[in-house]
Design brief:
The chain contains 19 helices and seven strands. It is mainly alpha-helical. It has one domain: Glycosyltransferase.
Length: 490
C-alpha cells in the first residue's frame, strides 16, 4: 500500500504547477500536433511548393551545389540560422519517421503533412547521396552565416558544400542519413512503393559506405562542422543505429548479425540515458528491445536490459536516476536547447511503455517497480510542461495558448518578411531586428524553443539563444508524443 501511494504521489507532483493552488489544465493535443508539424514548413530551404502554409516564408538557397555541378537544393535549416547541417537534419528526419511509424494512425488529417515533412528531408538526402562513395554533409559556411543576421531569402554568405568520402570519411553523418532513409522507406511502403524502394536501396548503399570507410567527420571536416555539430559520442552508435533501422526495414539477418557482433560497443559505452542528434544509445536499445518483447525468435537480452537501465536513469523516483529536474518537474540536462532532451527521452519512454504493455512487463529500479502506465504518465507530464503546465503558466510552443515566446533566436521569424519589406537586407542589415525588444513580426507557429533554465525561469530574449532558439530535433520526437496523447487521454 505504501509503495502504491508513493508512486501515485510522484505522478501527481510531477504533473502540477507549483503555487498557491494546483492547476491541471487540459491541453489541446490535436492543435499542438498540427502546429508542431507546421513548424517544419518554416524551416524549409529551397523552392517552396504551392501547398506551403507558412506563407511568410519564401524561396531560398535556390543555387545550393551549383558551384560544383550538383543539385543540393532543398532540405531544412536546423534552427535559427541558415546553414544546412545534415547530421541533425538526418536525425530529425529519422525521428519524424519513427513518430509516424508509432503514432501515424492517430494523426488524422495531420498525417499527410507529417509525410510531407519527412519527404522534404528524404528528397534532399537522395540528392546529397547521389554520387557513389560521396556524401554531402553540410551546405553553407557556418562562420559567415553566424556573423550575419539575414532572412534566408536574402542570404549572400557562401553556400559552400562540404562532403565526406573514402579518403575523408564521416561515418556518423552517413550512417544517420542511412537511418533516416531506411526509417522513411518503411513509412512510405504503404502509399508510395516505388519511392519506398528508392529510399531503401539508397539507405543500404550509404550504410555500406559509412561502415566500409570508417572515421569521424570531426577529423575530416572539423574546422567547418565544429563546434556547431561535432560528434562527441563517436560514430559507432550511428553505425548501430543505421543497422537497426535497416534491420527493421528489411528483416535481413545480415543486419541482425551486424548488431549482435557489435553489442560490445553498447556494453562499453554506459550511455544508457543518452539520445539525440549526437548520441543514439538509448534509442538503439528501445528500438531493438521490441524484437525480444514482441517475439519473432530473437534473443536480444542486452538491448532489453540496457533499455531498462535507460528508464532507471531517467525517472525521478529511481534510486539510480542520473538526470536533474527543475522544481516544476522539467527533465533537465546540461548544455543548450534542453527541450531536445525532454522531447527525445519522453518519446523513448512512451514507445518503450507501449512495447512493455503488450507483454505485461514491468521494470525494477532497485526497490521501485515501474509500470508502463507510469512511463506514459511521465511522458505526458513533460509534454504538458512544454504546453503550459509549469510555474510560469507559459507555453514553450509558439502559437499555442496565449502566453508563449515572442522573441525567438531565429533570423527568419525576427525580420520582416518579403511581403512587408521587399528590399534586400544585407549581412548586417538585420542587426537592428536582432537587438530589438519588439516581438517577432513573423509567427514561427509550432516552434518549440530551447526552454527555461533549471529553475523554471525563462528570459524571452533573442540574445539568449540557449533558451530562445527552436530546432527541428526538438520538434521531431514531439510529433509522435502529441499524436499519441491526442487520442489516448491519461
Amino acid at each position: 500500500m505504501g509503495g502504491s501511494f508513493l508512486c501515485l504521489f510522484v505522478i501527481f507532483m510531477f504533473n502540477v504547477v507549483w503555487g498557491d493552488r494546483v492547476i491541471v489544465p487540459k491541453h489541446d493535443y490535436s492543435d499542438a500536433l498540427s502546429k508542431s508539424i507546421l513548424f517544419f514548413e518554416g524551416q524549409r530551404s529551397g523552392k517552396l511548393p504551392y501547398t506551403q502554409r507558412m506563407t511568410w516564408r519564401k524561396d531560398s538557397a535556390l543555387h545550393d551545389g551549383d558551384q560544383i555541378g550538383v543539385d543540393l537544393v532543398g532540405g531544412y535549416y536546423d534552427a535559427g540560422d541558415n546553414v544546412k547541417f545534415n547530421f541533425p537534419m538526418a536525425f530529425s528526419t529519422t525521428m519524424l519517421a519513427w513518430s509516424v511509424l508509432e503514432s501515424g494512425r492517430f494523426m488524422g488529417p495531420d498525417l499527410k503533412h507529417a509525410l510531407d515533412a519527412i519527404r522534404w528531408g528524404t528528397d534532399y538526402f537522395l540528392k546529397a547521396t547521389s554520387i557513389p562513395d560521396l556524401v554531402f554533409v553540410q551546405v553553407g559556411d557556418p562562420y559567415g552565416d553566424h556573423n550575419c543576421w539575414q532572412r534566408p531569402e536574402d542570404m549572400d554568405t557562401p553556400r559552400t558544400p562540404y562532403a565526406v568520402s573514402k579518403d575523408h570519411p564521416g561515418s556518423e553523418v552517413a550512417a544517420e542519413i542511412a537511418a533516416a532513409l531506411a526509417a522513411s522507406s518503411i513509412v512510405f511502403r504503404t502509399n508510395d512503393v516505388p519511392y519506398s524502394i528508392t529510399l531503401l536501396r539508397r539507405a543500404i548503399e550509404v550504410f555500406n559506405f559509412a561502415d566500409k570507410y570508417r572515421g569521424s567527420y570531426n577529423d575530416s571536416l572539423g574546422p567547418w562542422v565544429c563546434p556547431f555539430y561535432c560528434d562527441y559520442s563517436g560514430y559507432q552508435d550511428e553505425l548501430m543505429w543505421g543497422a537497426a533501422w535497416l534491420h527493421r526495414a528489411t528483416n535481413s539477418q545480415v543486419y541482425w548479425r551486424y548488431l549482435v557482433q557489435n553489442i560490445h560497443n553498447m556494453e562499453s559505452s554506459g550511455n544508457y540515458a543518452e539520445f539525440g542528434w549526437d548520441s543514439k544509445y538509448a534509442g538503439i536499445n528501445v528500438l531493438l528491445s521490441k524484437l525480444l518483447l514482441l517475439g519473432g525468435g530473437y534473443h536480444v537480452d542486452p538491448f532489453h536490459t540496457f533499455a531498462d537501465k535507460f528508464v532507471c536513469s531517467v525517472l525521478p523516483e529511481s534510486p539510480t536516476r542520473g538526470l536533474d529536474y527543475s522544481p516544476g518537474g522539467l527533465l533537465f540536462k546540461p548544455g543548450g536547447s534542453n527541450m531536445q532532451h525532454t522531447t527525445a527521452l519522453s518519446f523513448l519512454l512512451l514507445v518503450y511503455a507501449r512495447y512493455l504493455s503488450h507483454v505485461n512487463k514491468v521494470i525494477r529500479c532497485g526497490n521501485v517497480v515501474v509500470t508502463p502506465p507510469r512511463l506514459i504518465q511521465f511522458a505526458k507530464g513533460q509534454v504538458d510542461y512544454i504546453l503550459g503546465s509549469n510555474p510560469l503558466n507559459m507555453s514553450y510552443m509558439v502559437g499555442y495558448g496565449k502566453n508563449f515566446p515572442r522573441k525567438l533566436h531565429h533570423r527568419g521569424a525576427s525580420i520582416q518578411s518579403l511581403d512587408r519589406h521587399s528590399d534586400h537586407i544585407d549581412c548586417k542589415g538585420g542587426s537592428p531586428y536582432y537587438s530589438s525588444n519588439n516581438p517577432d513580426p513573423n509567427l514561427l507557429t509550432g516552434a518549440v524553443v530551447g526552454g527555461p533554465d533549471i529553475h523554471d525561469s525563462y528570459a524571452d530574449s533573442r540574445q539568449l539563444f540557449v533558451q530562445s532558439e527552436p530546432t527541428t530535433y526538438i520538434n521531431a520526437p514531439l510529433v509522435g508524443l502529441l499524436a499519441y496523447f491526442k487520442t489516448h487521454p491519461v
